[in-house]
Amino acid sequence: MARPKIALIGAGQIGGTLAHLVAMKELGDVVLFDISEGTPQGKALDIAQSGPSEGFDARMKGANDYADIAGADVCIVTAGVPRKPGMSRDDLLGINLKVMKSVGEGIAKHAPDAFVICITNPLDAMVWALREFSGLPHNKVCGMAGVLDSARFRHFLSLEFNVSMRDVTAFVLGGHGDTMVPLTRYSTVAGIPLPDLVKMGWTTQEKLDGIVQRTRDGGAEIVGLLKTGSAFYAPATSAIEMAEAYLKDQKRVLPCAAHVDGAYGLKGMYVGVPTVIGAGGVEKVIDIKLDRDEQAMFDKSIDAVKGLVEACKGIDSSLA
Ligand code: APR
Hints:
By secondary structure, this protein is an alpha/beta fold. The protein has 11 helices and 14 strands. About 45% of the residues lie in helices and about 20% in strands.
């Protein structure tokens, strides 16, 4: 059987890291696409030349023409601009919306059967716009945020409890922004929910609240340190986890920005929810029960996402 074809739209910091990970994990052949001439070609060549030492079999190609993504099984979209210190993800909306239009049209024309994972920020609004511009089925277009936000939460919790990150599970709902909703009740160490760990004296409520806030600010903390761009290693790894779930039909339960229509009382909008990802793309949205406080935080997050979607419609009348 031929290797899967993975198109990476955007060959910047995340795009290059994605290509390297695809090669190392032998998930398929890669086409790195970018508007910048030479960048995708240079990165493709560099990564290909790590093959003899690493021992992987994967073809790497750089491209500036959408025709090269023809027939891709997976498209991961990072095209656009990242934020700088002091900027919120929402400040990127105007520029990145235009980028989503060209990317959506390129995918619709050349890779309409692909599973599309968007990473470009502001995530929830960009994945919605990308789906609108591409016209692909909703279950085949989703956004990467929840896996990353949960990974950040798990990392901070593992440091607090001094246990392996593998034994910490965490749950983050809502939009990928300041209003994201880390759910402590559904986050555990080896199955023990965080509120029980507070009762057991493993941590205090105050420390837990601090970790929740650090998770919400996780992206900004890295932007502040890097100064010239935003996080790329963990975002790339998170998207690869989703792509692998699709390519190998793993039926992984992963939080992602999915099209929610009915669940959570929502009518057709993209927002971070737990999903099942397998060969059918986003095969299921898991509708969990929220308590009153969680619902209030979720509602606030939904309003923030709706505001961004309205802003998109205001900028591009074809979306209205
Ligand atoms: N089509 C294709 N590629 C484009 C386009 C376009 N219309 N516009 C910009 N690009 C490319 C740039 O040339 C650049 O190589 O997108 C790439 C973006 O790479 P970086 O600037 O390194 O940004 P990165 O850190 O990879 O983040 C990309 O993901 O997490 C989000 O907020 C982040 O929106 C940002 C995106």
